[in-house]
Write a structure and sequence with these properties.
The structure holds three protein chains of three kinds. Chain A is mainly α. Chain A is 70% helix and 0% strand. Chain B folds into two domains: 5-41; 53-236, Cytochrome Bc1 Complex, Chain D, domain 2, CATH 1.10.760. The chains are: A mainly alpha, B mainly alpha, C mainly alpha.
C-alpha cells in the first residue's frame, strides 16, 4: 500500500476514535468489575496503617 | 506455590508498564506520524536559500543568548498579526531550521520578518543598548557581542552536521565555510566573491557591525537578523492578499 | 551515608564515580577549544568528589542484616534536602529574572546575567531541581511503604539521586555559559541528555524491582502515577532530544527535527512534561500524603483509577494546542484542542476526589497548615486545569498566546499546585522520616502557608491582567481601521504588572526560605519521638504477610 499523507491523516482521524472507545470500555470494566471491589477497598485503607516496617 | 504467586506478581507489573506505554504513546504517534509526510502538502519554495555560515553562526548566538524566550518567529494567521508583522509564516520557511525557533512568548515583538526592516547600524545600536534607540525597552544590553571575536574555524563542522540532519549544504559550501563567514562581513576582501557564488546573488555582503577589519559576534547576529524572513518570497506569493516584500534599507 | 552501603556496593560506587570522572577528563580533553571543556572539568570534579566521599567511609563497619527489617530512608532524606536547596536557589533566580523585566540594567553587563540565559536556569532549577528531587524522594518513600517492601539494594537509589543532580548541575551551569539547545524545558545539551537517560533507566528498574518485591498483592494507585511519570518522561525525553553533536569535542548539537515537525515534537514534549512530570508525579504525592495526613481514606479509589487512565490517555494528544494559528496543519490543531477540553474531566475528577476526601475533616484543614497546603494545592490543580482547557480553545488562544497570561497559567500550576503539594507532603514526611514528634515550629508552617498563598495570588493576578491587556492592545483597531497601539505601547503598559509579579515571587521565595529553616531545625532540634507501638513489628501482620 502506498503510504502518503492523506492515508496517514485518515488513519489518525478514524482509528484514533475507535481506539478511544475500546480503551474506555476496558478501563470502565476493570474499574467496576465486582470482584475488584474488595481489593480496591483494601488498598484504599491500607496506606493509613501506622505500621512502618517492611513485611518479611 | 509461593514461587508461582511471585511470578504472577512480577508479570502484572510488567503488563501494567506495557499498558502505560501503549496508552501513552498512541496520541503522540497519531499526531506526529502524518507530519513526516507533510512535505507532500507543504508549499513549494524553489527559491529557498540556505543560511550562510555567518548567518548560521548568528543563529547559534541567537540560541545561545536565549532570544527565543522573548521573541517569537511565527506570525499567526490573524489579521492584526499580518498587519503588524507581515504575511503569516509558512511551514516551508522554517524547513531547514534545526531547531525551529517559533517561540512561545512575546515580551518583545515577533522577528519572523525583521530582515531588512531596520538598518544594520540600528541593530548594532539597539543590541549595544536597546534604550538608546527605544527608550521604553526592557531588553537586556548585549555589549559583549561587539567585544567578542567570532569563532569561525569550526564552522565547516557545523555545516557538515547540518547536512547530516538534512540541510542540503554542498561539499563546496562545507569546505569554504570559514572563509565565507569572513568574506560575507568583509566586502572588500577576496573571500567576498565566493559567498554570492555559493549562496546566491541575494546574499547580503557587508560589514554588518560597521567595522570591516574585525569579525565579531555582532556581525554574525546582525547578519542573521537581516536574513530573517528573506530566505524565500513564498509567503508573499501564496497569501490571499499578496504583499510586496520590503525594499532593502540602505 | 556510606555506612549504609555494603562493601560490594561501596566498590560499585567508587567504580561508577571513577568512570564518571574519566568521562569528564575525556570531555575536557576533546573539548579543549570549546565550552565543553568547562563541563568536562565539572564532571571530573563531581566524579572525584563522589569517589573520595565513598573512599573516606570505605572502612566503616558494614550494615548488618537488621537493616532488612526497616525501609531504606537515607536517600529520601537527602532528596528532600536537595529539593529544598534547589527551591531556594531557583526561586531566587526567578525573582531576579522577574526584576530584569522591570529593571533591565540589572545584568551588570555580564553575559551570564542576561534574561535569556537566566530564564532557563530558573525553569530548570524549579522543574528538575526542586520538582525532580521532590518526586524522586517521595516516590522512593511511597513505593516502599505501599509495597511493604524495602528497596532491593542501597546503591541504585543513590545513583539515581546523585546522578540526577549531576544532570541538573550540568544543565544550569551550561545555560550560564551559553550551552543550550533552545528547546524549552529541554535546553540541556546532548551529553547531559544521554546521562539523564542512563539515570532514568536505573530509576525505572529500581522502581519496578521494588514493586515486584511487594507483599501487598495490589499496586496502590499512587505508584501508578509515579510509574507513568517515569516511563512517559523517558519516552518524551528521548524522542525530543534526538540530535547530532557537531563533534565529540563540541557542546553544540543540531536536532534531527526541523521546522514544523520540530515544533510539534517540542510541544508534544513540552505539554507532556507538564502532564507527566508536573502532574502525574505530583498526583502520586497527592494520593498518598493527603489521605495519610487527613487520616481518611481517599474518597473514591475507583475514581482515582478512572482519572489515571484518562490523564495518561488524553494528555498525549493535547500538545498541539501550543501551536494554534501557526503553520501546523489545521486538523492537528483541532485534535489538540478537542483533547485539551476533554482533559478537564479526568483532571477535575482528581481534584474533586482530593477535596471530597477532606469532607468531614474540614476542622483539621482549618487547624493544620500542612493539610491546608495540600487542600489549596488541589484547588489550584482544579483551577489551572480548567484554565488550561479554556486557553486551549482556539479563539481564546488567539488572545492568550504569546502573552503573560500563559506565564500566569504556568505559575498557577507550578506555584499553586506543584510547590504547595510538595511543601504539604514534605511537612507530612519530615517528622515521620526523621522520627520526630512534630515539625520544629507549626507557627512557621503557618507563616510559610500564607506567604506562599499570597505570593501565588499576587503573581497570577498580575499576569492575568498584563496578559489580557497585552492581548487586547495587540488586536485593538482605531476607527480608521488601523492598529491602535504600537508594540512598545503594550510593553509600557506591562511595567506595573512586572513589578507586582516580582513582589509576588519575592513573597513565595521568603516562604521557601522559612520552610527550609523549619525543616533544618526539625532535624536538628526536635527530640526523637517516643518509640511508638507501630515501630515494633506486629507479629500477626508479619504472619499474614508471609503468605
Amino acid at each position: 500500500m502506498d503510504i502518503d499523507h492523506d492515508t496517514l491523516v485518515f488513519f489518525s482521524k478514524s482509528w484514533g476514535l475507535f481506539y478511544l472507545l475500546a480503551f474506555a470500555i476496558c478501563v470502565l470494566a476493570y474499574t467496576f468489575w465486582p470482584s475488584n471491589k474488595k481489593r480496591f477497598n483494601k488498598a484504599k485503607k491500607s496506606i493509613l496503617d501506622p505500621e512502618d516496617k517492611p513485611w518479611q | 506455590m509461593p514461587e508461582l504467586f511471585h511470578r504472577k506478581l512480577e508479570r502484572s507489573t510488567i503488563g501494567f508498564v506495557l499498558a502505560i506505554i501503549v496508552v501513552a504513546s498512541i496520541g503522540g504517534i497519531v499526531e506526529i506520524a502524518p507530519l513526516f509526510t507533510i512535505d507532500e502538502t507543504v508549499e513549494e519554495a524553489p527559491d529557498m536559500r540556505l543560511y550562510t555560515p555567518l548567518e548560521l553562526a548568528g543563529r547559534n548566538i541567537y540560541i545561545r543568548e536565549g532570544c527565543y524566550a522573548c521573541h517569537s518567529q511565527m506570525i499567526r494567521t490573524l489579521r492584526d498579526e499580518v498587519e503588524r508583522y507581515g504575511p503569516y509564516s509558512l511551514a516551508v520557511e522554517s524547513r531547514y531550521d534545526h531547531p525551529m525557533l517559533w517561540g512561545s512568548k512575546r515580551t518583545g515583538p515577533d522577528l519572523a520578518r525583521i530582515g531588512d526592516k531596520y538598518s544594520d547600524i540600528w541593530h548594532v545600536a539597539h543590541l549595544t543598548n536597546p534604550r538608546d534607540v527605544v527608550p521604553e525597552s526592557n531588553m537586556p544590553a548585549y555589549r559583549w557581542l561587539a567585544r567578542n571575536d567570532l569563532k569561525i574555524e569550526d564552522l565547516a563542522l557545523h555545516l557538515a552536521t547540518q547536512r547530516a540532519v538534512g540541510v542540503p549544504y554542498t561539499e563546496d559550501m562545507i569546505e569554504n565555510a570559514a572563509e565565507d563567514a569572513y568574506g560575507q562581513a568583509t566586502p572588500d576582501s577576496d573571500a567576498a566573491s565566493g559567498v554570492a557564488e555559493r549562496y546566491g546573488e541575494e546574499t547580503q555582503i557587508r560589514a554588518f557591525d560597521g567595522v570591516a577589519t574585525r569579525l565579531t559576534e555582532m556581525d554574525a547576529l546582525v547578519a542573521y537578523l537581516q536574513v530573517l524572513g528573506r530566505l524565500t518570497d513564498a509567503a508573499y506569493e501564496d497569501t490571499a492578499a499578496p504583499q510586496k516584500p520590503p525594499e532593502p534599507v540602505e | 551515608m556510606v555506612s549504609t552501603l555494603t562493601r560490594s556496593e561501596r566498590q560499585a560506587a567508587i567504580g561508577v564515580s571513577v568512570l564518571v570522572a574519566i568521562c569528564g577528563l575525556a570531555f575536557a580533553a576533546l573539548g579543549r577549544h570549546d565550552v565543553l571543556e568547562i563541563h568536562g572539568f565539572l564532571i571530573l570534579a563531581f566524579g572525584l568528589l563522589c569517589a573520595f566521599a565513598v573512599i573516606n567511609g570505605y572502612y566503616e563497619p558494614e550494615p548488618t542484616d537488621e537493616r532488612l527489617a526497616s525501609y531504606y530512608d537515607a536517600p529520601i532524606k537527602a532528596g528532600i534536602a536537595l529539593s529544598m536547596a534547589w527551591a531556594v536557589f531557583a526561586l531566587f533566580i526567578g525573582v531576579w529574572v522577574a526584576s530584569l523585566l522591570a529593571w533591565p540594567n540589572l545584568t551588570f553587563d555580564q553575559a551570564w546575567a542576561s534574561f535569556g540565559r537566566l530564564r532557563p536556569v530558573h525553569t530548570t532549577g524549579i522543574i528538575f531541581g526542586f520538582g525532580g528531587n521532590a518526586l524522586i524522594a517521595t516516590s522512593f518513600h511511597v513505593m516502599q511503604r505501599t509495597s511493604r517492601a524495602r528497596m532491593p539494594d542501597q546503591f541504585s537509589a543513590w545513583f539515581v539521586l546523585i546522578g540526577f543532580n549531576l544532570f541538573c548541575l550540568l544543565s544550569v551551569t551550561g545555560y550560564l555559559v551559553g550551552v543550550t539547545q533552545s528547546k524549552e524545558y529541554a535546553e540541556a545539551e546532548w551529553y547531559a541528555d544521554i546521562w539523564l537517560v542512563i539515570v532514568w533507566v536505573t530509576y525505572f528498574i529500581l522502581y519496578v524491582r521494588t514493586i515486584a518485591r511487594r507483599k501487598e498483592p495490589h499496586i496502590y494507585v499512587a505508584n501508578w502515577y509515579f510509574l507513568a511519570f517515569i516511563l512517559v518522561v523517558a519516552i518524551l525525553h528521548i524522542v525530543n532530544n534526538i540530535a547530532v553533536p557537531v563533534s565529540l569535542g563540541h557542546a553544540k548539537s543540531y536536532p534531527v527535527w526541523s521546522g514544523v515537525q520540530d515544533a510539534m515534537v517540542q510541544w508534544w514534549y513540552g505539554h507532556n512534561a507538564v502532564a507527566f512530570f508536573l502532574t502525574a508525579g505530583f498526583l502520586g504525592m497527592l494520593y498518598y500524603y493527603l489521605p495519610v495526613r487527613a487520616q481518611r481514606p481517599i474518597f473514591s479509589y475507583r475514581l482515582s483509577i478512572l482519572s489515571f487512565w484518562g490523564i495518561t490517555f488524553f494528555y498525549m494528544w493535547a500538545g498541539s494546542h501550543h501551536l494554534h494559528y501557526t503553520a501546523l496543519p489545521h486538523w492537528v490543531q483541532t485534535l489538540g484542542m478537542t483533547f485539551s477540553v476533554m482533559l478537564l474531566v479526568p483532571s477535575w475528577a482528581s481534584a474533586g476526589n482530593a477535596l471530597l476526601t477532606l469532607n468531614g475533616a474540614w476542622h483539621r484543614v482549618r487547624d493544620d497548615a500542612t493539610l491546608r497546603f495540600m487542600m489549596v494545592a488541589a484547588v489550584f490543580y482544579g483551577l489551572s486545569t480548567f484554565e488550561g482547557s479554556f486557553m486551549a480553545i482556539r479563539p481564546v488562544n488567539s488572545l492568550s498566546h504569546y502573552t503573560d497570561w500563559t506565564v500566569g497559567h504556568v505559575h498557577a500550576g507550578a506555584l499553586g499546585w506543584v510547590a504547595l503539594i510538595t511543601f504539604g507532603s514534605f511537612y507530612t514526611l519530615v517528622p515521620s522520616l526523621w522520627k520526630r514528634e512534630r515539625m520544629y515550629s507549626p507557627a512557621l508552617v503557618e507563616v510559610h502557608f500564607w506567604l506562599a498563598l499570597a505570593g501565588t495570588l499576587v503573581y497570577i493576578f498580575a499576569m492575568w491582567n498584563s496578559g489580557v491587556i497585552q492581548g487586547l492592545m495587540w488586536r485593538t483597531y482605531t476607527e480608521e481601521g488601523t492598529l491602535a497601539y504600537s508594540f512598545i505601547d503594550s510593553l509600557v503598559a506591562m511595567y506595573p504588572y512586572y513589578i507586582a509579579r516580582t513582589l509576588g515571587g519575592l513573597l513565595f521565595f521568603v516562604g521557601a526560605i522559612i520552610g527550609s529553616y523549619n525543616i533544618w531545625m526539625t532535624v536538628r532540634a526536635v527530640p526523637l519521638a517516643a518509640d511508638r507501638g507501630s515501630d515494633i513489628p506486629d507479629s500477626s501482620a508479619v504472619a499474614v504477610a508471609g503468605e
